[in-house]
Amino acid sequence: MYHARPEVAEERFDQLVKFLEEHGETGIARQAQNVKESGGIREALHFITDKAAEGFSTTSCQEATPLILLTAIGIMQTLPPH
Hints:
Layout: H1 6-22, H2 26-39, H3 41-54, H4 59-63, H5 65-78
């Protein structure tokens, strides 16, 4: 049985944004927060995964792309179905 945990999604999203900020992707982090505020976490995660597909500007985020994508998927799994 599926149990949505939106509070976990919020916490993990904030951690992901903080990771992006700490590794030099502050523009993407800010934009992701803005997208979240206007369209919700799902839209913000799509924004982040699109940016990951385009390629990050910092080497540390480029190297962490698989982790960032897996984190985004994990966050999506904690959200209730829409």
